[in-house]
Write a structure and sequence with these properties.
Helices cover about 40% and strands about 15% of the residues. Strand 2, helix 5 and strand 3 form a beta-alpha-beta unit. Helix 4 runs parallel beside helix 5. It is globular. The structure holds pyridoxal-5'-phosphate (PLP).
Length: about 400
């Protein structure tokens, strides 16, 4: 039995949303590591398979632990329905490919997570889906690109790695006028700080690998939106292509969600302090933090995101050698391309997460070799500031 969660406040939804107790009355959610399900009779098996009777038939189709997570995520996002997948890319690729057919058109912001960009630039065109990239923060560019019929629009805000803002409500309106579905990759913002569906998006997608697990342990993804869309397009795609989430990973993320609000808010407070410390250092050209008023898209971020987020980007004076020197001088912060972890992590996007883009494509999104991206975790903020300061002093 799932308790009613419609009128619960957020903290209660995060601690209890979706919980289904077994006959043993466990307080912590159970982990159902099972691939299949047994039936009481051949008649029941037939009824389950035909859909005449509700219930589980196979864990590629559904699993009770995954269902608990999906319900908790839907409660957090304020979505009608959620499906969980093996990874964030499992969710995003499914949300993009499942509704598209040859001849359709997709418009995407040019600043995207590397694999999202690869789907748009390389995979979709091979199946006859035309894609166009636009500068995400330029509303006139969106107006031009969405003056033609379009099936789907993909954006990310704040974007990776330079934390640009896309005005979600404005792009939603333009997308809908062009007949398109708006898909928002809300990983950097987290569902705690920004609600894409409330802002007009049709589908929110997540890498739960990041802040939802929040402790760097497992891969998982989520697709959230209207039941009608999910049942028509996403369910058949997931069933027949198979990016099913492991119930073990779903359980880890289910437990992660219980603390996501506390963790994200503390990491945001740390990130704001770290961003201010970096901004005051003489060896940098620029810092980008959505919560700082010197961010070029500060007003848009402020309008749609509650706090500044857990990511900071900064450009060091110099280029690749100087950026590497700063990374190699870090004593506390780890060099890693992951993000949204308890541990603070830093990377050089130009040579790692965005290396597949050529120099021109990187320049297109304002990226060059002087930039470092920092995911701020839950260590003591003063320890983090000291580490960044000593690493920048090394230049
Ligand atoms: C990590 C990430 C993804 C991909 O998620 P995986 O869980 O690694 O597959 C997609 N989008 C953004 C913005 C990400 O940070």
């Amino acid at each position: 039995m799932t308790k009613r969660s419609d009128d619960w406040a957020l903290a209660t939804k995060l601690a209890r949303g979706g919980t289904m107790r077994s006959q043993f009355g466990e307080t912590s959610e159970a982990m159902y590591l099972t691939s299949g399900y047994a039936y009481n009779s051949a008649e029941q098996a037939a009824a389950r398979m035909s859909g005449d009777e509700e219930g589980y038939v196979y864990s590629r189709y559904g699993n009770p632990t995954n269902q608990m997570l999906a319900e908790r995520l839907a409660a957090l996002e304020g979505a009608e329905t959620c499906r969980v997948t093996a990874s964030g890319m499992g969710a995003i690729s499914s949300a993009m490919i499942a509704p598209c057919s040859a001849g359709d058109r997709v418009v995407a912001a040019s600043a995207l997570f590397g694999s999202c960009r690869h789907i748009c630039s390389t995979i979709l065109p091979r199946y006859g889906v035309e894609t166009e990239f636009v500068n995400g923060s330029d509303l006139d560019a969106w107006k031009r690109a969405l003056s033609k019929p379009t099936r789907l629009v993909l954006i990310e805000s704040p974007s990776n790695p330079l934390l640009e803002a896309v005005d979600i409500a404005a792009v939603a309106e333009l997308a809908h006028a062009a007949g398109a579905l708006l898909v928002v990759d809300n990983v950097f913002a987290t569902p705690i700080l920004q609600k894409p569906l409330e802002l007009g998006a049709d589908i929110a997608v997540y890498s739960a690998t990041k802040h939802m697990d929040g402790q760097g342990r497992v891969l998982l993804g989520a697709i959230l939106g209207k039941s009608e869309f999910i049942e028509e397009h996403i369910d058949p795609w997931l069933r027949h292509t198979g990016p099913a989430a492991s119930p073990f990973n779903a359980w880890v993320v289910l437990k992660g969600l219980e603390t996501i609000d506390l963790r994200v808010r503390q990491a945001c407070a740390n990130a704001a302090k770290v961003a201010d410390t970096i901004a005051a250092h003489p060896n940098i050209n620029a810092v980008r933090y959505p919560g700082r008023s010197d961010h070029p898209n500060y007003e848009v971020h402020k309008k749609q995101m509650e706090l500044g987020g857990t990511l900071v980007a900064f450009s060091v004076k110099g280029a690749r050698a100087e950026a590497f020197k700063v990374l190699n001088s870090l004593e506390l912060v780890d060099i890693s391309n992951n993000l949204g972890d308890t541990k603070s992590l830093a990377c050089h996007p130009s040579s790692t997460t965005h290396r597949a883009l050529n120099e021109e494509e990187q320049a297109d999104m304002g990226l060059d070799e002087s930039w470092i991206r920092l995911s701020v975790g839950l260590e003591d903020a003063d320890d983090l500031c000291r580490d960044l300061t000593q690493a920048l002093n090394a230049l």
